[in-house]
Specification:
Elements: H1 19-28, H2 32-45, E1 49-51, H3 88-93, H4 97-103, H5 131-140, H6 146-157, H7 169-176, H8 180-190, H9 203-214, H10 219-227, H11 229-233, H12 237-244, H13 248-259, E2 281-286, E3 289-294, E4 302-304, H14 306-314, H15 320-357, H16 359-364, H17 374-381, H18 385-391, E5 396-399, E6 402-405, E7 413-415, E8 421-423, H19 424-436, H20 446-455, H21 462-471, H22 477-480
């Protein structure tokens, strides 16, 4: 059989992701901060784009920035109003208070009027000291000889974020090439510094150091820390009472003293600085109706620079390479403006749909949150589920009930005994309230909570209660029990 080369014509459909579509999809899933950063980057890279600082409407994307309409006629100047004598309030408002503050000798400060003379924001920026820096500062004020000071630096460098020394003394000696006696002496001195319990090698030593710093001489407290710490972590107070031969009331009183100690001395110096959420949407109630407002504060309003529009209008008077470059940048800028407008409209539609589905939540609170999935909203606004998923990622809404992520309103359903359904988030809130109202001496088991929910017309299994309780970071009933 001979091998032949033939040409065949076939017709097939294929989904092509154009760069413009990829950009629109990317903008949908960006958070507010990421969108602002992207816009600022585009303003720097694309000379055609500029920020609209004059309060004008941005250029419509449908107009490809090549044709500019005629200039509107200038309005006639109104006739000047007759002058009147200024009131006392207007006279006070006209006072130059800056000159007054600088000329008045009784004032103790004056602000520089020139921006160049003012202190920069970076010069006033402060941050929390780390645990290592805090101990280093105390090290300079403490009585350490040179060898101990060298060993102390190695010890401080080996502290973890919780304030514990995870390396052994022998390993520190090998690192610092110092005798064991010097390292142990430096370690004892560091353990006397603030915060109490720092540089401990385990939880038992950490609590003992804190008892020493507080001057707690209670024998039972120290015996529990030294002998029954594992039982105390399990809240086995009866077992501790049997082991130490004391009453359970005495064990309960001693456990409360131990409970006031800090198991992680470095906690106050660890962690990241808090990140404050700026909502993307505001839901405001006016009368009986809710209104959705997009938060566009801090988001630059974009438009096409007039100079580059003039370059395109001149046509043949501009070199071809220049005209092609400007057209490419204008096209990119127009698509960016279109994509941002489309993103805002989509967020608005999704929030309107959520508001229609979860109206009782906005009126009455979390207990009335309904089951909702992405398909419900997608069918309502006639978009794809993936679009709704991207829109609800990393977006927050300010409501009369508080600030929530848009994903919060999408919940799986739990059946009621009467055939209806309730949102899983509402069930979590019910479990939290039931546990917060329980008797600490007789905490409710997961099985008992499941029975209480079934009595409230919610069909739920014990293992589901356990899963929701653990998701809320609530201990089991045996660990929640208090005695005495």
């Amino acid at each position: 059989m001979a091998i032949e080369i033939k040409q065949q014509l076939r017709l097939a459909q294929q989904l092509v992701m154009t760069p413009q579509l990829q950009q629109a999809i990317k903008l949908l899933q960006l958070s507010r901060l990421e969108l602002v950063n992207l816009v600022q980057q585009e303003l720097q890279e694309n000379p055609v784009l500029e920020e609209n600082l004059e309060g004008e409407e941005p250029v419509a994307p449908e107009v490809e920035a090549e044709v500019e309409g005629p200039e509107p006629a200038a309005p006639e100047a109104p006739e000047p109003a007759p002058e009147r004598e200024a009131t006392d309030a207007e006279k006070i408002a006209d006072v130059d208070w800056q000159d007054y503050m600088e000329s008045n000798p009784q004032t103790s400060f004056s602000e520089a009027r020139d921006d160049d003379e003012r202190r920069s924001l970076e010069s006033t920026l402060t941050r929390r000291p780390s645990l290592a820096e805090h101990i280093e500062w105390q090290l300079q004020l403490s009585a350490f000889d040179e060898a101990e000071r060298e060993a102390a630096r190695f010890l401080i460098g080996n502290l973890d974020e919780d304030g514990y020394l995870r390396e052994s003394v022998e390993e520190i000696c090998a690192q610092a090439s110092l005798p064991v006696e010097v390292v142990e002496s430096a370690l004892r001195k560091i353990q006397q510094l603030d915060p109490p319990g720092v540089a401990a090698r385990d939880l038992r030593e950490c609590l003992t150091l804190q008892l020493d710093a507080l001057g707690v001489d209670d024998v039972l407290v120290r015996r529990i820390v030294g002998q029954c710490l594992d039982q105390l972590q399990k809240r086995d107070l009866r077992g501790i009472a049997r082991t130490l031969g004391v009453s359970i009331e005495e064990v309960a009183a001693a456990s409360r003293v131990i409970g006031n100690l800090e198991p992680w001395p470095g906690r106050q110096f660890g962690g990241e600085d808090p990140v404050y959420i700026t909502p993307d949407i505001y839901v405001v109630k006016l009368g009986d109706e809710y209104h959705v407002m997009l938060n566009e504060d801090g988001l630059p309003k974009l438009r096409i620079n007039h100079l580059y529009r003039d370059v395109l209008q001149r046509g043949n008077g501009v070199p071809k390479d220049t005209r092609d470059y400007v057209q490419d940048k204008v096209r990119s800028a127009v698509w960016l403006i279109k994509s941002i407008h489309q993103r805002q409209r989509t967020i608005y539609k999704v929030m309107q749909s959520i508001l229609r589905h979860q109206r009782e939540f906005f009126d009455r609170g979390i207990n009335f949150l309904r089951p909702l999935n992405l398909r419900d909203v997608a069918d309502d606004i006639e978009m794809h589920e993936s679009t709704v998923s991207r829109v609800t990622s990393n977006k927050y809404v300010h409501t009369p009930q508080g600030i929530f992520e848009l994903k919060y309103f999408f919940n799986s359903s739990i059946n009621r005994t009467d055939g209806d359904a309730v949102a899983s988030e509402s069930v979590r809130e019910r479990i939290r309230k039931i546990i917060s109202a329980e008797d600490p001496r007789r905490p409710l088991s997961d099985q008992r909570i499941a029975e209480m929910l079934k009595a409230a017309n919610i069909d739920i299994a014990r293992r589901t209660v356990t899963k929701y309780r653990e998701a809320l970071n609530i201990l089991s009933s045996t660990r929640r029990r208090e005695v005495g």
